[in-house]
């Protein structure tokens, strides 16, 4: 068995949830925050048999889009008068960041 941990953009989370339910996969959604952008994203935990991993990865791939997002770098704190206006930088986010991990044991009581 494997645990698939997928970090996706909030904009894709409802569509991905529906697609997983439709394909008969069970998932848990966690509200999470990206360390770099400090913006909300959604983390899915999906427990599946080994032979289902590629199907789940396809569902994720088909429902999560790559998007460009603007980030404004933090202005340096300085007492000097030669301060500058930081220009926004564009970063590419997603479609999804996925980890596939082995599960030692699975129990439901
Ligand atoms: P964030 O950490 O908010 O990162 C958002 C996007 O900013 C990243 O998109 C990447 O394009 C860029 N980025 C992140 N760190 C950077 C850095 N040090 N320098 C330059 N650009 C940087 P994605 O790679 O698609 O990641 C989307 C989200 O997935 C991340 O949000 C984070 O929540 C998660 N993530 C990505 N890689 C991870 C990892 N190795 N471990 C845990 N979570 C990860």
UniProtKB/TrEMBL annotation:
UniProt GO molecular function: transaminase activity
Entry superkingdom: Bacteria
UniProt key word Transmembrane helix: no
Annotated SUPFAM superfamilies: GlnB-like
Keyword field: Aminotransferase, Transferase
Protein name according to UniProt: Aminotransferase class iv
């Amino acid at each position: 068995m494997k645990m698939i941990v997928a970090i996706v953009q909030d904009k894709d989370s409802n569509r991905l949830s529906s697609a997983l339910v439709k394909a008969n996969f069970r998932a848990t959604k966690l509200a999470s925050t990206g360390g770099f952008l400090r913006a909300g994203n959604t983390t899915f935990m999906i427990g599946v048999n080994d032979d289902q991993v590629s199907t789940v990865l396809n569902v994720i791939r088909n429902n999560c889009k790559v998007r460009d997002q603007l980030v404004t770098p933090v202005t340096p704190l300085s007492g000097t008068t030669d301060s500058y206006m930081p220009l926004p930088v564009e970063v590419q986010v997603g479609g999804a960041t996925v980890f596939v991990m082995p599960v030692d044991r699975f129990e439901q009581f």
